[in-house]
Amino acid sequence: MAKGLFANLKGVDAFGKTTDDVKIKTRTGAFLTLVSAAIILSFTLMEFIDYRRIYTDTSLLVDRSRGEKLSMRMNVTFPKVSCYLVSVDVMDISGKAQRDISHSIRKMRLDSSGKEIRGSRSTQLKNEVERYTDDLPSDYCGSCYGGVEPVSGCCNNCEEVRTAYVNKGWSFTNPDSIEQCKREGWAIKLKEQANEGCSVVGRVHVNKVAGNIHLSPGRSFQSSARDIYELVPYLQDDGNKHDYSHTIHELTFKNDDDYNYRKAKVTKEMRQRLDNYMYQYFLKVMSTHFRTIDGQLLKSHQYSATHLERDVAEGGHGDTPQGVFFNFEISPILVVLTDTRQSFAHFITSLLFATTHALKKH
């Protein structure tokens, strides 16, 4: 009975077959069969490659980490500027200012050939100043000469006097009249640096708003809401001290947990000697997250940069400072780059469609 039931189903067969007696096999048919097989194989290979290929989807979100700090690491060499004439300052549109940063910046004096001068690092210089203060009487309390006194109420070395002047908004222009500076031979040391260069290495922490980082001459202070840069009088006329040609070995923006490999980075070769020039770099920084195919999240930053060179001596009145300025603008947008791959179901569907199309065509 079952056999009779299945026998009745032959009436709905849409793919009727001819008998072998009436089949005719030709070379043309064989050729078309081989062509169809080649096309099906090619489609299968292409679909498999497409299935294994990784695509990157881009999405834009609002950066919710705007309240966090962003670390900027730099490594810049000035072959014609002494370390005393390089001050690292940070200012942003929120009004925050970091002046003459030294706790996270290391300056190394370089000789005329670009090699580091032994014993010139900041920690070693600090120990040299401490040797002078150790020779002073235990009850010694140096004058701050009208500047803002530190917590101790005493300025026992030249650097403390200079800091007191800066905090007061005064220019530190006459070190020869300061007892502490004369005792430490401060003026002589500065003259010895006339033909030296400087390597600035370290990092600064900035708010995620627009601002600028500048490596400028002398020491900066604020007076009447203006930023002033003071120079030692007997170094002001030294042409070499105004040559801010430089080499940027590294400039990166990253958080502490950022992925190190894909961090934002730029390198720049040293420019030709240009006295009395101001170098400006304009950076557009954008937070970027990478989601890998295995679900790993990598945080980083990317930026674009343009630069401008300006001769401050042309048409100026001495108000425009020399130096290197990094003007940065951190975008409130977060870019998320997600690696994706087609599903296996999509691969099977595409493969069946390509195969059916090839068979129907031939």
In words, what does this structure look like?
The chain is an alpha+beta fold and 362 residues long. The chain folds into 3 domains: 48 residues, no CATH class; 203 residues; 78 residues, no CATH class. The protein has 7 helices and 14 strands. Strand 3 and strand 4 form a beta hairpin. Helix 2 packs antiparallel against helix 7. The two termini are 41 Å apart.
CA gyration radius, whole angstroms: 35 Å
Whole-number total of structural domains: 3
Please state roughly what percent of the residues sit in beta strands, choosing from under 5%, 5-15%, 15-25%, 25-35%, 35-45% or over 45%: 25-35%
Report the order of strands and helices: HHEEEEEHHHHEEEEEEEEEH
The assigned structural class equals: alpha+beta
Total strands: the figure is 14
Calculate the terminal CA-CA distance, rounded to whole Å.
41 Å
Q: What oligomeric state is this?
A: single chain
Mean pLDDT equals 76
Global outline? elongated
Q: Considering DSSP H and I runs of 4 or more, what fraction of the residues is helical? A: 10-25%
Count of alpha/pi helices: 7
Largest sheet: 7 strands, mixed
| Spans where pLDDT lies below 50 across 5 or more residues | 122-127, 221-226, 231-237, 260-265
